[in-house]
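Budget justification aside, the reviewers requested a transparent look at the raw inputs and outputs of the sequence design task funded under Objective 1. We therefore reproduce one unedited record. The lines immediately below are the structure tokens for a 267-residue chain.
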């Protein structure tokens, strides 16, 4: 049996003309401009990468920037697809699997998230220490090929401790939190936010968790950042709007860019 989460070989090499990739970054809502600040290369549209699902969400550009950060050959995916778009888990994890197929052994996942823990102010990046997968899905559902990855995957350290230490060495002010990943696309009700707080979540979003699981399944290291784009429902006195999420992402982009530059160059 094949695994739907197997690495995808060759497509990144074909699109970039290089085969020495070591790290990949996925940029979430409103964070696309970070890519240009990290590598100087021209973007490659997702539509020009074989099999790559394109993004249909405002604030997700849907382009790959490929180049060196310091001396680390790095792939930066600006934009992602989400389960709430009706995408499959094979599609959601495709960039991760393509990056790993191209040789990457470090995956950095970023997202915009609603803040639940009020000591994480809007506009700040927060290191993801751990997650709650509340999507009701897992990329490991279905047939498994033990030669690709383990059926019963250990998730006791999804977000790599030494990479988190490296990030904090770049930005000692960085705080950590637990990310709750939900299916979306609705924002939460105030009652759901209260529930998430009780469950131990510090921030909430609609991505990342299944990508992180797929990356761990394939044996690579994962680092994650949430940008707190808004206070979660019931904490904020005003209704949530996607524009607000995209705007806060832009403000936090510069600080995230500096952290990513230090981490990637330090690998
Ligand atoms: N909830 C869920 N996902 C989000 C939020 C939120 O408040 N903000 C950005 N993504």
């Amino acid at each position: 049996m094949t695994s739907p989460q197997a690495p995808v070989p060759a497509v990144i090499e074909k699109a970039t003309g290089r085969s020495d990739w070591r790290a990949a970054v996925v940029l979430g809502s409103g964070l696309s401009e970070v890519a240009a600040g990290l590598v100087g290369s021209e973007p490659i549209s997702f539509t020009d990468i074989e099999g790559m699902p394109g993004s249909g969400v405002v604030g997700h550009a849907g382009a790959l920037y490929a180049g060196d950060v310091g001396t680390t050959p790095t792939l930066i995916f600006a934009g992602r697809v989400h389960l709430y778009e009706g995408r499959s888990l094979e599609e959601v994890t495709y960039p991760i699997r393509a990056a790993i197929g191209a040789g990457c052994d470090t995956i950095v996942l970023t997202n915009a998230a609603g803040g639940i823990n009020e000591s994480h102010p809007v506009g700040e990046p927060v290191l993801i220490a751990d997650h709650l997968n509340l999507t009701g899905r897992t990329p490991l559902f279905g047939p498994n090929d033990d030669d690709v990855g383990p059926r019963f995957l250990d998730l006791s350290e999804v977000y790599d401790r030494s990479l988190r230490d490296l990030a904090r060495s770049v930005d000692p002010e960085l705080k950590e939190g637990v990310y709750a990943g939900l299916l979306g696309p609705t924002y939460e009700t105030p009652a759901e936010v209260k529930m998430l707080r009780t469950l131990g979540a510090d921030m909430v979003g609609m991505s990342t968790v299944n990508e992180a699981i797929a990356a761990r399944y394939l044996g690579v290291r994962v680092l994650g950042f949430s940008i707190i784009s808004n206070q979660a429902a019931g904490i904020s006195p005003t209704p949530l709007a996607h524009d607000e999420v995209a705007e806060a992402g832009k403000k936090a982009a510069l600080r995230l860019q500096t952290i990513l530059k230090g981490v990637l160059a330090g690998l």
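The longest strand covers residues 221-231. The mean pLDDT is 92. Computational costs for records of this kind are itemized in the attached budget.
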